[in-house]
Amino acid sequence: MMKAAKMLLFASLTGLLVVTGCSKDNASESSVGSSVKHQIIGIDPGAGIMKQADQALKDYELTDWKVVEGSSAAMAAALDKAYKAKEPIIVTGWTPHWMFAKYDLKYLNDPKGTFGKDEEIHTIARKGLKEAAASAYAMLDRFEWTPEDMAVVMSAVVDGKKPEDAAADWVKGNATKVNTWVKDLTPEQGKKLKLAYVAWDSEIASTNVVKTVLEGKLGYKVEMLQVEAGPMWAGLADGSADAIVAAWLPTTHKDYFEKYATKLEDLGANLKGTKLGLVVPAYMTISSIEDLKAK
């Protein structure tokens, strides 16, 4: 009897371990909603990706789901916490972003195309900048780099380096590329410029690099204006900002671009190969936004 009781106790404990172990890792398609409280962790409410995420809830009939507003920093912190514990989480994500180098992540397939095709990041100048600051205008028009370039700066910042120092290191280490941006341009010592940007890691990286080059190579005095997307575009249109290197087109900032297009000048893409969508850790078994629908 004693031996049988011990075996029964062992079997009960084993069953308990199996049940509790399955509640945390690799949420199945039928339980993923409850495992993340039917929440998608988003960023600042003015970001275009938030509008797309809300539209995804409609397109995929995810009536019980909610996109949680916050910031890119808060989203990254939530992802880090969940990833370390191997817990399920769904976030709004985009590339280039340092989190894809730090974690093993994947985009959920988007068969309805809610998040659109791959985008580009454009440089936009206010009307009249070419006449007011010719060398700055020309440098901004020439500015172009790659997702790999941007990742170097972003990763350095995530590892604890100040953005301005990470940008300066990149500029110093990529003299050949930087020189093509400023070749034969006349310095305009002390002339003031204002660059607006949103507090995304990608835009912090690019704006700091441009500031470093404009100041170090062409003598400008650059002020960086950190704002949300709406004020960034409005400030550019009304002249309180001179330029941005943070326009995600044709989808994310489409509404702003169309609203202010007559007051702006699109200098073209400074980075190609971006992507937006819903992102999950690779250890989660789901593969598509359709998998989020309750079964």
Can you put this structure into words, describing what you see?
This protein has 295 residues and is of the alpha/beta class. The chain has 2 domains: 29-117 and 276-292, Glycine betaine-binding periplasmic protein, domain 2 (D-Maltodextrin-Binding Protein, domain 2, 3-Layer(aba) Sandwich), CATH 3.40.190; 120-273, Dipeptide-binding Protein, domain 3 (Roll). It contains 13 helices and 10 strands. It has helices spanning 2-22, 32-35, 48-59, 72-84, 99-102, 129-132, 134-142, 147-158, 163-173, 175-182, 201-218, 229-238, 254-260; strands at 39-41, 66-68, 91-95, 105-107, 120-126, 192-197, 221-226, 243-249, 264-272, 275-281. The strands form 4 sheets. A 3-stranded antiparallel β-sheet has the order 3-10-4, sandwiched between helices. Strand 6, helix 11 (201-218) and strand 7 (221-226) form a beta-alpha-beta unit. The protein is globular.
Which stretches are low in confidence, meaning pLDDT under 50 for 5 or more residues running?
Answer: 1-29
The helix content is 40-55%
Q: CATH-wise, what's the superfamily of the largest domain?
A: Dipeptide-binding Protein, Domain 3
Give average pLDDT, whole number: 89
Using the 3D structure, state the CATH architecture of the largest domain.
Answer: Roll
Shape: globular
Structural class comes to alpha/beta
Strand order of the largest sheet: 3-10-4
Tell me the fraction of residues in β-strands, as a range.
15-25%
- How many beta-strand runs? 10
Tell me about the biggest sheet?
3 strands, antiparallel
Number of helices: 13
As a whole number of angstroms, the C-alpha radius of gyration is: 23 Å
Secondary-structure element order, as H and E? HHEHEHEHEEHHHHHEHEHEHEE
Identify the CATH class of the largest domain. Answer: Alpha Beta
> Kindly, what is the distance between the CA atoms of the first and last residues, rounded to a whole number of angstroms?
45 Å
CATH topology of the largest domain: Dipeptide-binding Protein, domain 3
